[in-house]
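Hello again, I could really use a second opinion on something today. Take your time with it, there's no hurry, and the full record follows here:

___
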Amino acid sequence: MDNKKGFTLIEMLVVVLIIGILAAIALPQYKRAVLRTRFAEMMSVAKTIKDAEELYFLQTGEYILRGEGALFNNLDISQFSKCGPWQTNGITSCKNFFINIDTGNPHNYDTRMVMIGNSQSMSTNNTLGYALYFDKSRIPGRKECWASVSDKTADDFCKSVGTFQTEYHNETSMKSPFNVYLMN
């Protein structure tokens, strides 16, 4: 009787096959979990910035304008110590996302909003974004989930949290066409 220790080739192939099947199931779930976590962080950051801008508006009667980047540092926002310095155009980069505070011009509040994308800069192709409009915009308090049309995971995520509104092209924050979903 042979007392060889070890596994046969068939046993090894079965184990590799089982690991492959488990990985194929687990990886998409993991990606969705990471997406949900980052999106929750983006929502929290956007709310913090919006609240600070609204407080600034109550104190001064106006929002901080684009081109006044140094004034962004005067907002009551302490959680962004790990982000880069605010640029004059209202943009900063953080570890997992960029922040774009779009305050339009002083006479037109239509586009007053916070836009956050899931890459570290606006020049990178973003696949997921969150927009929160200020109280004095034409659509106060509106929340939008933005998903690149080329990223099915991001698009499926936005579908799960909102209702399809429109498709945009040539948006500077998202370098590729994306779908916009309205959130409750």
In short: Strands lie at 91-93, 98-102, 113-117, 128-133, 143-148, 162-168, 178-183. Residues 62 and 77 are 18 Å apart (CA to CA). Residues 170-174 have pLDDT under 50 and may be disordered.
